[in-house]
Amino acid sequence: MKTNKTAIRYAINTIALVILMIITFVIGGVDNNTIKLKIVPSVWQCCYLIIMAASLNLVLGFLGQLSLGHCGFMAVGAYTAALVSLAFQRAGVYDEKKGAAFMLVMIVSILAAGILSAVLGLLVGIPALRLKGDYLAIITLGFGMIIVNLINNIPFCGQQGLSQGTASSALYANGLGFSNDEKKGYMYVAVLAVILCMALMFMFVRSKFGRIICAIRDNEIAASASGIDVSYYKVLTFVFSAFFAGIAGALYSCCNAALATTSFAFTNGSILNSVFIVVMVVVGGMGSLTGSIVAAIGMFLLNYAIKNGTWVAALPGFLQNVFTYPMLVYSIALIIVIMFRPHGILGTSEFALCDIPKWPRMVASHFHKSDKEAEG
Amino acid sequence: MKKKVMSALLATTLVAGLTACGGAKSTDTAASQPEAVDTPVAAETTDAESTEAAPSGETAGTITLGVIGPMTGSLAVYGTHIENGVELAVEQINAAGGVNVGGQMYEIALNSKDDQGDSTECLNAMNALISDGVSLVVGSATSGCTSAITSVANSEGVVLITPSGTSDSLTTQMDYVFRTCFKDSFQGELAAKYAADNGYTKVGIVYCSADTYSAGLRDAFTASCGELGVEIVAEESVATMTEVDYTNQFNKMASAGAQLVFTPFYYDVMGPYLVPQARQAGFDGILLGCDGVDNTETTIPDGADLTVYNDFMFVNHYATELATSEVSSYFVETYTEKYGEAPNNFDALGYDSVLVYKAAIEKCGSFEAADVQAALADTSVVYEVASGTFSFDETGTPIKSGVLMGYSYDEASNSVVKTAVQTLAVE
Questions:
Q1: For B169, which of A165, A318, A321 is closest by C-beta distance?
Q2: Single pTM value for the model
Q3: What is the complex's ipTM, to 2 decimals?
Q4: What does DSSP say about strands B402-410 and B383-385: parallel, antiparallel, or unpaired?
Q5: For the segment A251-306, what is each residue's pLDDT rounded down to a tens digit?
Q6: Domains of chain B
Q7: CA A319 to CA B272: how far, in whole Å?
Q8: Which of B12, B184, B237, B400 falls 20 to 30 Å from B211 in CA-CA distance?
């Protein structure tokens, strides 16, 4: 009976993913300005934000370690993918951004980005993960800053290389940087990357490793007394998480023609920085991968709507003024979420299509419980 | 539960009240703009004409200009000033009847977007503008952001004029990208020329090798010094543009006997760190910066010895004192009247971008992007605008002059004053 239920769940999820891919292909084929200029870039940005948030959730939510330098891994991935693709282009492997050769180069670049990030994750993780709590946060924060400065000062990829000027347009014309049309054509790559990454992360969390790292999170001493090699599993999770951050970086370099290290800093003007990724994880729910997806898409839409939405103009004047200060809106949204859902939108539970019929009962019981609490 | 709801409500009300009182500018969309034009804010003389002209339906339609800049965030000063300049120009043009396109008068409407100084946001803003049907764009403020949108402008066929993106390569490969400021290599050349003209034969350089702006200027300065026979006796680099200690570097400058040190940094480090430390290290020659040094007066710490800011010069785009043409003085006058302060670089360059668009549209008699691009690409056209008179070179960069400005300690007011010294030009 139980296996039967699991099979149905798998079947439903597979069908849902297939439908998602079909929609992606259909959208990729439509020639429409709104789709090309607004929807497709948004999908790309959501894709890398989702992978970033979910991969940080492995470390923050499941392993219980605060890492503040996650964007450092993304920067490594972005620059690696860009440089690898440019190297292939200069070696004459492909001329046009289509065909089998280019597909292969793209896959190689994306994997290379993930692998190099993972190697860096290993180098950082071995010394860093002997520390706990605040100290780990500080060392990862330092790592994020060091990486940015290192990249800035490497002649062939620093600020002079890829971020500005001719090298940027070279990347755009030749390397992995996609124009709007190419972004539309290759949108399925981004969606597929997200599906694969999320599937791998789910498998990790649901496996023996996932149960071990949750045990470490809940009580390190007890875990170690049960014969778990705590340091080994901590580093393993960190490396695994860094790998996906690298892949997110590769998607970033596909999506944005110009790379600048400020985009991967500890804080900056946009929603892509180490602090905001942590915020996404917390808002979505530490320990809920689907929560990270919801939070990443939610934060992106909030940010996009504030900057480019037409509905802001339709609001009454005094509300419009609030929206001229985007940072204020984020903080209000964050306060509201944390006030009403202290454990994040999804807490530690996962969203599942099969659970949708159960929702009304869950919501009812939630309110029933909170009423009781208020009375008590 | 009730408490939570109440506190959340309270917080939102407070915030709403705060921002409502703040009187922030709402970014109007194109749709609501034409009505706003009817309220005359521009010069009083043209006042009567505009109120008559608008209702009689003399204008054939509107041309929408997109504006992208960092309106919020750490570089908000740049974005808001560009927007101020653009708004002023649009108001004046509309008040005077609009843009003459093949005999018909069109009004200009604005569609502003905030990029927060981030390249991804800048790209989103650009795409949103294109999707709204905008084909003429002014933006963005920094070279980094602008480089993220130049290729989109080119591939989507949208004309982009950046008011202040000085990085050399922004316009070289992109036919649809122009600018109203000079480029970095030219700025370095002007600085070297100043050194040569004033008889400084031994100069030093302190720069940041990791930064495009700083390293680009250093390369241009070094090259020009070589041509002009100025000897570079010492060169030192720092790790970042936000370095706080320059003592070692200036000790070396002083011991190498440099008469002038070239310092391509931004204003945020000049006031509190670089200038005082240079003097403390025993360097008493000329400190020469570039346009990033403008606004240093805002970063001088309280209680600092103000005499150290003597002999501190920088190359700049524009100075209100040296702007003597009719367009410039009209701009300075109307700007001061409207905003209650003197205009800076960004105001003037934003204002100029609109004037350049107007001239190009009137010349080709069309506001289709391809036609405007062709008109702008004509290198023989001379534009007479607020920051000077110029024509574009074949890459879309103005051939124009710069100005030299200097800081000095004024005993009477016990403050550091900024004055325009001379106009700089290369033959």
A1: A165
A2: 0.82
A3: 0.84
A4: unpaired
A5: 998 888 777 777 787 776 677 888 889 999 999 999 999 999 999 999 998 888 87
A6: 28-182+324-396 (3.40.50.2300), 185-316+403-424 (3.40.50.2300)
A7: 39
A8: B400
